[in-house]
Design goal:
Number of strands: 13
Distance between the termini: 35 Å
Strand content: 25-35%
Shape: globular
Bound molecules: adenosine-5'-triphosphate
Structural class: alpha/beta
Helix content: 25-40%
Number of helices: 12
């Protein structure tokens, strides 16, 4: 179990992580979700002893990470796949970790096979690895010591669709067998598909947390997402039709059925490139709760003369 209580980190006068508390339980995948710069990596670095804690506590199985003997045998960590020694081959990276942990060298071959790095690729220097290959190597390294806890920062970064699918299966199986998984991402869909529990963070503070289903119920509501060729014209069409909307990615989330949105767009001759029912209130909950920290949201111009325009 990972337990984080009142964890804070200040850089000078800036509070990157502010009084964060949550628990990641065994047998569950806990998704740690937040926009860019929300404080996910900083929190994970504090949990794993890589960044000093300003205040609060973080323990794994009741111990601070730096106090865990032979930590790689208990906790698998992947924080920055690009940070691996560029001059070593993938196999050397794993062999060194295996030796440090007192593991047999056959474990290296098992892990290379698990993450689908071929014999040829494993003999290439890491500097010549693609991002996806580095990520696979990082996952192999995290799993090498057969840990019961996994802490992974954006592990899907750079993986191809098949790789992402494979990783989801791997994490689910790991948790089903009693393991604890803490997985960060700024991509809601990625986390939504694999996580049992969610911890949402924005501007260094927890904005929501709990069982995924409970959060979905809390989010509730219906609606749709729409993207048009001309974003401003689409905003005008929605406003004219009296449809409440807010910026979501390249388009808008609208509190209305797709048909009403399609009609509003048609009346104004706006070409739609995407129109679909909301996949779930979770995305809305996330966007709403983290709205003040969403860069795209801040950057989006409010339609002229609109009071409702771009709402929080
Ligand atoms: N060493 C540091 N010195 C000063 N500020 C820092 C330092 N490390 C992180 N920060 C700041 O702390 C905030 C949180 O950063 P962090 O990397 O934890 O965010 P994140 O949620 O992981 O973002 P992303 O999804 O983009 O990876 C950011 O504003 C970042 O600039």
């Amino acid at each position: 179990m990972i337990s984080v209580q009142g964890l804070s980190k200040s850089y000078g006068g800036f509070r990157a992580v502010d009084d964060v508390s949550f628990v990641a339980e065994p047998g569950r995948v806990t998704g740690f979700l937040g926009p860019n710069g929300a404080g996910k990596t900083t929190t994970m670095r504090m949990i794993t002893g890589l960044t000093t804690i300003t205040s609060g506590t973080a323990t794994i199985g009741g111990m601070r990470y730096p106090d865990i003997p032979n930590p790689g045998r208990h906790v698998g960590v992947l924080l920055d796949a690009s940070a691996q020694h560029a001059g070593r081959t993938g196999r050397e990276v794993l062999a060194l970790s295996a030796a440090t942990m007192g593991l047999p060298s056959r474990r290296v071959d098992e892990m290379l096979e698990l993450v689908s790095l071929t014999g040829t690729e494993s003999k290439r220097r890491v500097r010549n690895y693609s991002l996806g290959m580095r990520q696979r190597l990082g996952i192999a390294n995290a799993l090498l010591g057969d840990p019961s806890v996994l802490i992974l920062d954006e592990p899907a970064n750079g993986l191809d669709p098949a790789g992402i699918h494979w990783m989801r299966g791997l994490l689910k199986t790991f948790a089903d067998q009693g393991g604890t998984v803490l997985l960060s991402s700024h991509l809601l869909n990625e986390v939504e598909l694999v996580a049992d529990e969610m911890v949402m963070i924005g501007n260094g503070r927890i904005v929501a947390q709990g069982d995924k289903r409970a959060l979905l119920e809390q989010a509730g509501g219906s609606g749709c997402f729409v993207t048009g060729e001309d974003r401003d014209a689409l905003a005008t069409a929605l406003r004219s039709a009296g449809l409440t909307h807010e910026v979501a990615g390249e388009g808008f989330r609208v509190d209305a059925e797709p048909r009403a949105v399609g009609r509003a767009a048609a009346q104004h001759g706006v070409v739609l490139v995407d129109l679909r029912p909301s996949e779930g209130g979770l995305e809305r909950l996330f966007l709403t709760l983290t709205a003040p920290t969403q860069r795209d949201h801040q950057a989006a111009p409010a339609p002229a003369g609109s009071a409702e325009g771009v709402s929080a």
